[in-house]
C-alpha cells in the first residue's frame, strides 16, 4: 500500500507540470491587458496613457517573453513562492490563507449534510422502490437537480426577508472566535448546496442499491432469514457505496473549488468569488496559483477516494 | 429497518430545519409604523437649494465653510438653519458592491476606493458636502491665484496630524501631487494626466504650498478638489511606496481599523481631527455585498443604513417596494456625470464617412432608450453631459441623434446610406461590457439602427476583454458606460474628443474642436469658457462624433435616522464628516 501511495504521489509531478503549463498558456491567451485593467479599473474610471501602460507592464514583468515569464514563475512555485497579486500587492499565500478556510469549512459542512441526508434517502428510496415514499424522495431529488442554486438561494433570502424580516449575518466571523455566529451564517448556504449535491448522491445511491439488491448473494441473505438491517447495511450498502464515494469525492472537489453563487449571495469571501474576481481583473499570479492548487487538491482527493475503495472492499489491494 | 432509516432521515432533516430556524431570531417587530416623514425625494441638484428636511443642522463650533473664489458654476450655499439638534455617536453601516484590493488613493482606480477609505483622508480642497458643487476648504484654509491663472498659493490649516501622530506639512501635499503626476515604480497612477499642467511646486513654509502651472488650466481647482486627489503621508510612502495599498493612514475624520477586502471595512472617529467638533459618528462599517438581491435585503432588514456611497443605487423596482411598504427610508436622487455612450470608430469604413454617421443620428431616439431600457430614469444629454455646461436642452433635443426620429428622418437616413454606397445596409459589431444596464440600452439602440438597415451584432464581454477590444478598434460601434470624477469640460470632453485623448477610443479628430477644447481649458472667464464649450459641443453634434444616450440616475436609500449626509455624485459623496444618526 505504501509503495502504491508513493507511486501515485510521484505521478503528481508530471501532472502538475503539465497543468502549470496549460494554466500559464490559458492566462496569456485570454483577451485583455492586465496593465490596462489596473490603470482603468473595473468601472473604467481611470485613464491609461501609453507611457503609464508601458511603465506598468515593465514593472510587472509583462514585457518579457512568455517563456521567460513561465520559467520564472515555475521557479518561484518550486520554491513555494506563489507570487504577488497584481490587484492588492499582497502575496498570493496571504490572500489564499484568508479565503481558503471559509471555502473548506463550507465544503465540509455541505458534504456532511449531503451524506447524512442523501445516502439514507437513496437507500430508503431503493428499498421501497415504486412506493409513495420513493416517489416523494425522487421528486425532491429531481427538484434539487433541476433548480439552479442561484434561484433557490435567492428565493431563500426573499423568503427570510419577506416572511421574517430577517437576513442571515452578512459579516463573516471566524469559526473559533464565535462558532455560533459563524455557523449561523454558513448553515444556510450549506443547506442550499446540500440540496443540490444531495440530489446527485441520493440518485446515485438509489441506482446502485437497486442493482446490488438484485444480486444473488443478497437474495441468499434474505433467504437465510437475516434481518433487514444486516442485509441492507452490511451486505448491500457496502458494495453499493463504491461509486457513491467516487461521486462524493468529485462533489467535494467541486465544493473546494469554491461556489461562486453561494459566496456572492450569502456574502462569503471564499475562493470561488475570488477566482471570478481575479479572472475579471486578469490577476495572473492569483489565478495560476489557485488553479494549480485546485489541480493538486483533485489529485489528492482522487487518491484518497482510491484508498477508500480498499477500505470498503477488502478484495481490493494496492501493491 | 426501513422505518428506522426513514425516522432517522426525517429527524435529521427536522434537526437541520430546527437548527436553521434557531439561527434566525424571533420574528422581530416590523419597522415602526408611526407616521414617518415623507421620504426626502427632492432631487439634490446644483440648481436647487436643500429642502428643509435636508437643512444643515446647527453647526458645532469649528470651521464654517467659506465661499472661495469659485471657478465652477453653482449657487451660494443656503445659510445653515438651527432646525435640528445633532446627536453624537453611533456607527453608520453601508455596503460596497465590488471587491477592492488596493485602497491606495493615488493608484486605486475604482471609485469604490473612495467609499472604503476616502473618509480617512483629506484633499487640499473639497466639494461642499451638501451637494451644491461649491468648492470649499479642506486641508487648505484659503488659497490665492495670480491674475494669469497659473500660480496658486494654498495656506493650510494648523495643527493637522496624520493618524499616527506625525504632523502634516505642506511637503505632504507637494509629495502627494507629485506622486499622482509621477508615480514611483510599482505604483500605477490612473489620474496622472489630469494634473500634467503642473510645472513647479514650492513649500516656502510648512503651511504653504505654491503651485505653478506650465499652462493655464481652468479646471485645476475643480480637479484637485475632487475625491481622488487625496493628500497622503510622505513619511510613510517615501520609505515604502506600496505601504498604503491595504491600510489607510490619513488626516481625515475617520481611521480605518479593519480592512478585509471583500469582507468589511471598519473605521472609528479620529479624536484628533483638525476640524474641532467633527465627526459626529463614532465610526462606520461597510460590508462588501455583491449580490443585488442581498444588498436590498440588507437595507430592508436594517443590516445596513445606507446605499449609495459609490455603490449601485436602488432600482426602480426596489424604490417601488420601499414606497409600497412605507419603509422609513429616505430616497435621494442624482445623475452621474456621464453615462451611456456610443463610440464610433472614425478610423475605418463605414463610419469614417460623415454621411453614414448622419444616417445613424437620424435613426437614434435616446428618449425611447430611456423609456424602454431604464424605465424613464434618465435624461437626454449631449456630448457635454452636465447641464451646467451643455448647450440649452431646447436646442439639443431638436437635433438629429437627440430627438424623436420622424418618418422623414428615417427616409433621409436610408438615402444618406445609399449615397455613401451602403444601399443594402451595414453589418457591424458592437463590443460592450456585460452589465445588465449596458445590455439593455444597447439592445434598444440595436433595434433603432435596424430600422435603417444597420445591423449591429452585440458582443458582451468582461471588462478586461472589453477595454482590450476598444484599444484594438476591431469594431465599428462601441458602447461605453462611464462616469467622471467631476462635471468639468476638461474631464468630460478633453479625454474623449480631443485628438489622441486618453479615452478617445474611436480616434475622432477635428482641428477646430481641438482648438476650442484647448482654448476653454485656458479660459478663466466663466462666461467665455461656457461659450467655447458649447461651440465645441455643437461641432461634435454636427460631425456626429459619437452619441451620449443618458447619464445613470442614482437612487440612494437612507434610513430616516441618517442625517447630515447628502450624496450628490459618485465621486464626492464618500465624506461623512457631517453625517450623524438620529437614534
Write up what this structure looks like.
The complex is a heterodimer of chains A (319) and B (583). Chain A contains 13 helices and no strands. With 319 residues, chain A is mainly alpha-helical. The relative contact order of chain A is 0.14. Chain B is an alpha+beta fold. Chain B has a domain at 338-553: Dipeptide-binding Protein, Domain 3 (Dipeptide-binding Protein, domain 3, Roll), CATH 3.10.105.10. Chain B has 17 helices and 17 strands. Chain B has a 4-stranded mixed β-sheet. Chain B has a 4-stranded antiparallel β-sheet with strand order 4-5-7-6, covered by helices on one side. In chain B, strands 14-11-15 form a 3-stranded antiparallel β-sheet. In chain B, helix 8 runs antiparallel to helix 11 (407-419), helix 9 packs across helix 12 and helix 16 (511-521) packs antiparallel against helix 17 (526-542). Chain B is globular and about 70 Å long. The model of chain B is unreliable at 20-82 (pLDDT under 50). At the A-B interface, helix 2, helix 3, helix 5, helix 7 and helix 8 of A face helix 1, strand 10, helix 6 and helix 13 of B.
Summarize the structure.
Chain A is mainly α and 319 residues long. Chain A has helices at 2-29, 34-40, 50-60, 66-78, 92-127, 132-146, 149-164, 179-213, 216-223, 228-256, 260-265, 271-281, 284-312.
List the helices and strands and how they pair.
The complex is a heterodimer of chains A (319) and B (583).
Chain A (H helix, E strand, L loop, with lengths): L1 H28 L4 H7 L9 H11 L5 H13 L13 H36 L4 H15 L2 H16 L14 H35 L2 H8 L4 H29 L3 H6 L5 H11 L2 H29 L7
Helix pairs in contact in A: 1-13, 2-3, 5-6, 5-8, 5-10, 6-8, 8-10, 9-10, 10-13, 12-13
Chain B lengths: L1 H22 L67 E6 L15 H6 L7 E3 L7 E3 L2 E6 L5 E6 L13 H12 L16 E8 L2 E6 L6 H6 L8 H4 L16 E7 L3 E6 L13 E6 L3 H9 L15 H9 L4 E16 L9 H10 L2 H8 L19 H4 L10 H13 L6 E8 L2 H15 L3 E8 L1 H10 L4 E5 L7 H4 L1 H4 L13 H11 L4 H17 L3 E14 L2 E2 L16 E2 L2
Helix pairs in contact in B: 8-11, 9-12, 16-17
Amino acid at each position: 500500500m505504501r509503495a502504491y501511495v508513493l507511486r501515485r504521489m510521484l505521478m503528481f509531478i508530471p501532472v502538475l507540470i503539465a497543468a502549470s503549463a496549460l494554466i500559464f498558456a490559458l492566462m496569456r491567451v485570454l483577451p485583455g491587458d492586465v496593465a490596462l485593467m489596473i490603470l482603468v479599473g473595473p468601472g473604467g474610471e481611470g485613464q491609461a496613457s501609453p507611457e503609464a501602460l508601458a511603465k506598468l507592464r515593465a514593472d510587472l514583468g509583462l514585457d518579457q517573453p512568455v517563456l521567460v515569464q513561465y520559467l520564472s514563475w515555475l521557479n518561484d512555485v518550486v520554491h513555494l513562492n506563489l507570487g504577488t497579486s497584481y490587484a492588492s500587492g499582497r502575496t498570493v499565500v496571504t490572500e489564499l490563507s484568508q479565503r481558503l478556510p471559509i471555502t473548506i469549512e463550507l465544503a465540509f459542512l455541505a458534504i456532511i449534510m449531503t451524506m447524512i441526508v442523501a445516502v439514507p434517502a437513496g437507500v430508503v428510496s431503493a428499498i421501497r422502490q415504486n412506493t409513495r415514499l420513493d416517489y416523494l424522495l425522487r421528486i425532491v431529488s429531481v427538484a434539487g437537480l433541476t433548480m439552479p442554486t442561484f434561484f433557490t438561494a435567492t428565493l431563500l433570502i426573499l423568503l427570510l426577508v419577506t416572511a421574517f424580516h430577517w437576513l442571515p449575518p452578512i459579516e463573516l466571523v471566524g469559526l473559533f472566535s464565535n462558532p455560533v455566529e459563524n455557523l449561523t451564517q454558513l448553515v444556510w448556504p450549506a443547506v442550499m448546496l446540500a440540496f443540490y449535491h444531495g440530489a446527485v448522491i441520493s440518485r446515485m445511491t438509489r441506482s446502485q442499491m437497486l442493482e446490488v439488491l438484485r444480486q444473488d448473494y443478497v437474495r441468499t441473505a434474505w433467504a437465510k432469514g437475516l434481518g433487514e438491517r444486516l442485509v441492507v447495511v452490511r451486505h448491500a450498502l457496502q458494495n453499493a457505496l463504491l461509486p457513491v464515494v467516487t461521486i462524493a469525492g468529485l462533489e467535494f472537489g467541486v465544493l473546494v473549488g469554491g461556489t461562486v453563487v453561494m459566496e456572492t449571495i450569502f456574502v462569503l469571501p471564499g475562493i470561488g468569488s475570488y477566482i471570478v474576481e481575479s479572472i475579471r481583473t486578469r490577476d495572473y499570479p492569483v489565478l495560476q496559483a489557485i488553479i494549480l492548487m485546485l489541480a493538486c487538491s483533485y489529485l489528492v482527493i482522487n487518491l484518497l477516494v482510491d484508498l477508500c475503495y480498499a477500505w470498503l472492499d477488502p478484495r481490493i489491494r494496492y501493491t | 429497518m426501513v422505518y428506522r432509516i426513514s425516522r432517522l432521515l426525517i429527524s435529521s432533516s427536522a434537526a437541520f430545519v430546527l437548527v436553521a430556524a434557531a439561527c434566525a431570531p424571533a420574528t422581530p417587530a416590523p419597522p415602526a409604523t408611526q407616521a414617518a416623514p415623507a421620504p426626502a425625494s427632492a432631487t439634490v441638484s446644483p440648481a436647487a437649494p436643500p429642502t428643509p428636511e435636508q437643512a444643515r443642522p446647527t453647526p458645532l463650533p469649528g470651521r464654517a465653510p467659506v465661499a472661495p473664489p469659485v471657478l465652477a458654476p453653482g449657487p451660494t450655499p443656503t445659510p445653515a438653519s438651527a432646525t435640528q439638534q445633532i446627536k453624537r455617536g453611533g456607527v453608520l453601516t453601508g455596503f460596497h458592491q465590488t471587491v477592492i484590493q488596493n485602497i491606495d488613493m493615488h493608484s486605486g482606480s475604482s471609485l469604490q476606493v473612495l467609499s472604503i477609505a476616502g473618509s480617512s483622508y483629506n484633499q487640499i480642497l473639497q466639494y461642499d458636502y451638501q451637494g451644491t458643487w461649491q468648492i470649499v476648504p479642506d486641508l487648505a484654509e484659503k488659497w490665492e491665484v495670480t491674475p494669469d491663472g497659473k500660480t496658486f498659493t494654498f495656506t493650510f490649516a494648523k495643527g493637522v496630524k496624520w493618524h499616527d501622530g506625525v504632523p502634516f506639512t505642506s511637503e505632504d501635499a507637494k509629495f502627494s501631487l507629485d506622486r499622482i503626476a509621477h508615480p514611483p515604480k510599482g505604483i500605477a497612477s490612473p489620474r496622472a494626466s489630469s494634473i500634467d499642467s503642473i510645472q513647479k511646486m514650492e513649500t516656502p513654509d510648512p503651511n504653504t504650498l505654491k503651485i505653478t502651472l506650465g499652462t493655464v488650466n481652468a479646471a485645476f481647482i475643480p480637479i484637485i478638489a475632487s475625491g481622488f486627489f487625496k493628500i497622503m503621508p510622505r513619511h510613510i510612502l517615501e520609505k515604502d511606496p506600496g505601504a498604503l495599498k491595504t491600510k489607510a493612514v490619513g488626516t481625515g475624520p475617520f481611521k480605518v481599523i479593519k480592512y478585509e477586502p471583500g469582507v468589511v471595512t471598519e473605521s472609528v472617529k479620529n479624536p484628533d481631527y483638525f476640524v474641532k467638533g467633527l465627526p459626529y459618528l463614532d465610526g462606520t462599517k461597510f460590508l462588501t455585498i455583491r449580490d443585488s438581491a442581498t444588498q436590498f435585503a440588507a437595507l430592508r432588514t436594517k443590516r445596513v443604513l445606507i446605499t449609495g456611497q459609490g455603490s449601485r443605487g436602488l432600482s426602480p423596482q426596489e424604490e417601488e417596494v420601499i414606497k409600497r411598504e412605507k419603509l422609513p427610508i429616505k430616497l435621494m436622487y442624482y445623475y452621474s456625470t456621464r453615462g451611456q455612450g456610443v463610440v464610433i470608430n472614425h478610423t475605418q469604413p463605414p463610419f469614417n464617412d460623415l454621411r453614414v454617421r448622419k444616417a445613424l443620428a437620424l435613426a437614434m431616439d435616446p428618449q425611447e432608450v430611456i423609456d424602454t431600457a431604464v424605465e424613464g430614469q434618465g435624461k437626454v444629454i449631449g456630448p457635454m453631459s452636465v447641464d451646467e455646461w451643455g448647450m440649452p436642452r431646447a436646442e439639443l433635443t431638436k437635433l438629429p441623434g437627440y430627438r424623436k426620429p420622424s418618418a422623414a428622418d428615417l427616409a433621409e437616413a436610408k438615402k444618406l446610406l445609399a449615397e455613401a454606397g451602403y444601399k443594402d445596409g451595414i453589418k457591424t459589431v458592437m463590443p460592450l461590457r456585460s452589465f445588465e444596464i449596458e445590455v439593455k440600452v444597447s439592445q434598444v439602440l440595436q433595434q433603432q439602427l435596424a430600422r435603417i438597415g444597420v445591423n449591429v451584432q452585440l458582443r458582451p464581454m468582461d471588462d478586461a476583454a472589453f477595454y482590450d477590444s476598444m484599444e484594438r478598434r476591431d469594431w465599428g460601434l462601441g458602447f461605453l458606460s462611464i462616469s467622471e470624477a467631476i462635471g468639468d469640460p476638461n474631464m468630460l470632453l478633453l479625454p474623449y474628443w480631443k485628438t489622441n485623448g486618453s479615452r478617445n477610443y474611436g480616434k475622432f479628430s477635428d482641428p477646430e474642436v481641438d482648438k476650442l477644447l484647448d482654448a476653454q481649458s485656458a479660459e478663466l472667464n466663466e462666461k467665455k469658457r461656457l461659450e467655447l464649450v458649447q461651440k465645441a459641443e455643437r461641432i461634435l453634434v454636427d460631425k456626429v462624433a459619437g452619441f451620449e444616450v443618458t447619464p445613470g440616475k442614482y437612487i440612494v436609500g437612507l434610513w430616516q435616522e441618517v442625517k447630515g449626509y447628502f450624496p450628490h455624485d459618485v465621486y464626492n459623496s464618500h465624506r461623512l464628516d457631517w453625517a450623524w444618526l438620529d437614534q
